[in-house]
Amino acid sequence: xxxxxxxxxxxxEDGGVAAKRRRWPVFLALGVVVALVAAGVVVGxxxxxxxxxxxxxxxxxxxxxxxxxxxLRGLRFKHPVKxxxxxxxxxxxxxxxxxxxxxxxxKQTQQASALLRAAGLIGPNVDLADAFNTTSAADTxxxxxxxxxxxxxxxxxxxxxxxxxxxxxxxTHVLQDQNFDLPKLERRAEASTSGSLDAFTALVxxxxxxxxxxxxxxxxxxxRREYDRLSSSSSNQADQRTKNLPAVVGTIMGAPYAFGPPxxxxxxxxxxxxxxxxxxxxxxxxxxxxxxxxxxxxxxxxPPVPALAxxxxxITLSSSNDAGFDAFTLYLMLGARLDRPSALLAADAYSAxxxxxxxxxGTTCLRAAIVGVNPANTHYLxxxxxxxxxxxxxxxxxxxxxxxVFHTCDPGAHAQAPNDTSINQAMTLAxxxxxxxxxxxxxxxxxxxxxCVTRVLVQQPDMRDAILANSDTLxxxxxxxxxxxxxxxxxxRNNLLAGLPGTSP
Length: 505
Prior knowledge:
four-stranded mixed beta sheet; 18 helices
């Protein structure tokens, strides 16, 4: 199951590329980076193209932003696009599914809810459609719709610095579309047997976030302070609107925005805009890039889709290819039920997976086949999955060996909601670890080495505690952290697989 399979369709999200108001917190962990170096570690409107017309000039407020984004991104606009300014209520209608749309999607929503319950990610009484609608309305400030080739902005009047920065993000999507054809790339990602639309979206959003950040960095100190104030206020308001929703909804919708920037920053360090262009147009990545940001151009070999047994009837979801079982799904499932270190190590050990979605006596189920990076990693995955199935009402391991095959079914009213803190902590550990990797990569620290060292370091309890507490020791490491950095550097210089199951640290 890909997390994209359970994302609600709405007028903005159906092909739209939205700028989310909230961003996962960024922890630079500069002290740890210094330690690594010191250690010697080397929607949408559906408008046919024939009916589209474009303005001859940019909207006056947008024009100077467009010129700067064009220069920062190293691409040229083929033509301006229309910018629509909507009232708050009109904008939120654009980014949420209407009652009529929800009625059409009722069966899909029921299946998505059943799959999330089977995965142990929501409880029995979750209105998934309302949760996704509420999150979309709360978290979106603007979006570019590749269908209509137009930008939609929440509110009217003179731009604030927050709006200007958001528009810079959206204009990056315009450049991506005009130069690479986003809908075509999205269709290819959906059809990929080894990649994931979620992971492709992470590249798209990470690229736009990179340009957004570059644009903001060029603004005056006063404007940057005002941006921080407005952004914090908007984030707090969004948090209030979504505070009673299951954590997994915000996690699924926010993942591309959280994991995409570190991946893109590593590509930028290695080869600038050209490397990012190649990643966007190259093989569709899997969500393994969420745990190894260097794995962009290395699609995994997928194990055969597990066979259905007598009495099991295949379920087909809306995506073109729903046979992939990806790393992020596995991580959320494990992180919601088991301890976070074991879940993160399992995600690191994971290489690829496939799945079959089916119904059994009217109950929605999934069966997944997963393999590790090597046999020792596959064995570890089997032990962790065994712990997980024991925590679920209707799950079991079907077989193990070279491939681990397990199934889990929707417990319905007997579903037990996971602890939201567990999901939030799992997300924080993985995202901040990626940010540390991206911050560490440079002339003295190759990307693969940074991945290895950070993997080893985050297995240390003091480092995990510092990440979860957002402790200042991330920027001012303790003597123990410095010692651990030296040891991690030595281990990874000796073996880039250090820290994986069956490998000496």
